Amino acid sequence: CLYSWVEAEGLVLLEAMAQGTPSVGANGCGIQDVIRHKKTGFLVNNLSEFEKRVIQLFKDDDLRAEFSKNCKKYVKLHRIDEVAKRWIKIYKFTINELYPLRYYKRPIEERFQKVFEFAQKTPGISF
Fold first, then answer.
1. Residues of the signal sequence (predicted)?
2. Which residue has the higher pLDDT, 18 or 119?
3. Rounded alpha-carbon distances, angstroms, from residue 52 to 7, 65, 96, 104
4. What is the DSSP string of the chain?
5. Which of 11, 20, 86, 126 is the Cys-Cys partner for 68 at CB 3.0 to 4.6 Å?
6. pLDDT in tens, 26-61
7. What are the chain's domains?
């Protein structure tokens, strides 16, 4: 369980997932990038909801087992070789698709939006 509103990468969550431990975390910066709500754990918006979800995981063996299995599978996406593959896709998209269109001269928000749209359509990439 991690109830912090800001967590850069959520390394402690990834370590827990590698052991098959589902997590409950605040739906805040960084944490929602690691926990997949209702798949590897729960994202919550307040302490009351946090308490409810922790109790739910303790009481529901089947749900905990399902989340545990999902955690072990999902955490593999965070291995350095998998992360590097996704970044290479983003770099290739930027160089091959945006550079020829002279996107480097456009406002940063517009450039980021194009990369974000690409990431949303590409399996395994999320922002």
1. none
2. 18
3. 22, 18, 48, 47
4. -B--SB-SS-HHHHHHHHTT--EEEESSBTGGGT--BTTTEEEESSHHHHHHHHHHHHH-HHHHHHHHHHHHHHGGGGSHHHHHHHHHHHHHHIIIIIGGGTGGGS-HHHHHHHHHHHHHHSTT---
5. 20
6. 887 778 888 999 999 999 999 999 999 999 999 999
7. 11-78 (3.40.50.2000), 80-121 (no CATH)
* pLDDT, tens digit (0-9, with 9 covering 90-100), for 70-108: 999 998 887 888 888 888 888 888 888 877 777 778 888
Q: What angle do CA 107, 84, 102 make, to 5 degrees?
A: 25
Q: How many CA atoms lie within 13 A of 113 on its CB side?
A: 6
d(CA 8, CA 90): 20
CB 39 within 8 A of CB 23: no
Dihedral sign (CA 90, 91, 95, 101): positive
* Residue labelled with tokens 């690691």: 34
The whole-number pLDDT of residue 6 equals 59
